Amino acid sequence: MRHQAGGKMASQGSKLFACAPAVHFFSHTMPVLLGLLLFSILLTPGDSLECETCIATSSNCSGMLMNCSANEDTCAVSLTESKVDQISVQNIVKGCSSTKACGQGPYSINLGKMFTSRGVAVCCKGANCSSISVPLPPINNTVNGKKCPACYSILSPCSSSDVAECTGAEDQCLDLSIKSGTIKITMKGCTTKSYCDALSQNAKKTLKEAAFGMIDGKCTEANKAPPSSRFPLLALSWLLLVKILL
C-alpha cells in the first residue's frame, strides 16, 4: 500500500497537538524528541523512489510505502536511544533519505544530567530495510574537557546556568528552539559534528510542510565564540510524535 504525505495529515496532527496540555506533551516526548529529530529532518515527500515509512518507540517497526522525491536516492533506518530522569527509550524511524544524509555517522546529544541521546541512521534499499540490523553506537561517558551551556525549558526562556561536560566525540554546543502552535521548547547542550551536519544540510530543503512546526537551530564549537548563522529546519517529527505518543 502506498502513502503520500498531504495537508489532511498535517491538519490532523495540528489538531492533536493543540489539544495536548503543554507539560503533558513535554514530559512524554522529551525522551524521544531529539532522537527522532535527527532522522525526521531528512524526510521529504515526493513521487519517485518508494520506501517503507514508520516510526515506533521500540527497536523495530513496519509501515506503508511512501513516495520519495526525485533527489532522494535511498531508504534509511534510524535507531536512537534517549534517556531522561533515568528513563531510557529506544525509537526507530524508517523513511526516504539521500545517501549523503543518512551517511552522517553516529551522533550523541548531551544536556548534562537532564537528557542524553545517541543514535545512527543507515542507508538501505528494498527488502533489506525490513531486515537490516542497526546497532546503536557504544556509550562513551569519557569526559573530553569541552563544556557547553545546558538547559531545556517549555514555554519560558531557557536559562543556561548549568553546564554540560561533553563526552566522547561531542565537540559542538547545540542550541535548539522548537515551535509548534503556542508551544515552544528550548534545548541546549553538547553534541557531535555529525548531528550539526545533519541540521545544516536540512537548511537547503524547502519548507512545504511548515504546518508541522519549525525548528531554529545552531551549533558552535565547544568552548569557542558562538556562530553567526542559524539553520531554519522543518520539524516533521511533530506529526509523527503526536500520532504515537498522545
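Next protein, fold it too.
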Amino acid sequence: MSSSLTACSPPHQKYQAVVGLSSAALIRSQLLKKSFITILKYVVPLVIIGWLLRSVDQEKLVRLWHEQQNWPMMLGGFLLAFAAVCLSFYRWHLLVRGLGLPFRVADAFRLGFLGYLLTFVSGGSVGGDLFKAVFIAHEQPGRRTEAVATVLIDRVVGLVSLLVITSVAIVMARPSYESPVVAAICNLTLLATVIGLTAMFLVLVPRHTSELMLKIAIRVPKVGVTLGRLVAALQVYRRRPGVVALVLALSLGVQGLLAISLFMAAESVLDDAPSLASHFIIVPLSMVAGALPFTPAGLGTFELAMDQLYLLIPEPPRSDGILVALVYRLITIVIAIIGVGYYWASRREVRELLDEAEHDPSLS
C-alpha cells in the first residue's frame, strides 16, 4: 500500500524526499569528517609524545620517577610561567584599549583564561584565539573588525617577540655552527626576525608607507574591505607610540619569563641541565612550533621541537628534552584549570559564543 502511494506521489514530492535524504547524508558525512579530524588532532600528538618517550634512556625514566625532585625549582618555574601568561592577557588589554574600545582588565583576564583553557579542550574548530575574537566582536558590534584585529595583532606581536628574543640569544651565545642544521636554524631565525621587524616598521612608522599598504589592501578582491579595516586598525597604533612600546616590552618580558621557566623546569628534573643561554634559543623556537595550528595547545609539536633542539643546541647534546617539555606541559595544564572556574561561572554565555564561532565564517 505504501509503495503504491509513493509511486503515485507527485514528482515534486519525490524530488523533495530525495533532496532531504541527500542533505541528511551530507550532514552525516560532515559530522563524521569533523569527528575524525578531531580524533586525529589528539591521537597524533599523543603518538608523537609516546615515540619520544621511548627514545629516552629507560633507566633515566625509572630514576626520575623514584628520585626526589627539586620541588622549589619546579614551583619557581610554575610561578614564572603563570606570570608570563598573566602578562600576555594584560598585553591584549592594552591593544584593545589602544583602539579606544571599552575593555576592562578583569574581562581581559577572564577571556584570557577561558581562551587558554579552550586551546586544550576544544576539539572543534574553535580555539582560544577564535573564542576571544568572537567575544570581543560580540561586545563591539559597531567596530567588529577592529576588535577582532586585536586578537590577530596580539598573536603577531607575540610571534615577533619570540623571534627577537631568540635572535638576541643567538647573537650573544654564538652557538656552534659546525652542524649545518644548527647553522640553518640560526640563520633562518635571524632572517625571519629582520622580516618581521621590517613589516612592523612599515605599518607602524612611516605614514606614506602605511597609507600605500592601506590602498593595496583595499584593492584585494573579496576581502579588500576587511583587510583595509585591519590595516587601519594597525595605523591607529602609529598615533600611540607609548602603547606600542609598552606592548613590545611586555612581549619580550613574556618570552623571557617562559625561557627562564623552562630552564627552572629542566633544573628540577635533570642533574646537569643545559645552560640558561641555550634555553633562550631552544624555548622560543619550540614555542613557535607549538603555535602552529595543527594540534590543541601545540600538543606534540612543542614536545617534538624541544626534544630535537635539545639534541642540536646544547654542548654536549642532550636526549632528554622531552622530559623537560612534559614538565612544562603539566605546568600549563595547571594554569589552564583556572579557566574551568571562569567557564562554570558563565557556561551558558560561553556555549552560545562557541556556537556562534562555529557558524560565523567571517571569524574563521
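About the second fold: Residues 2-43 form one domain.
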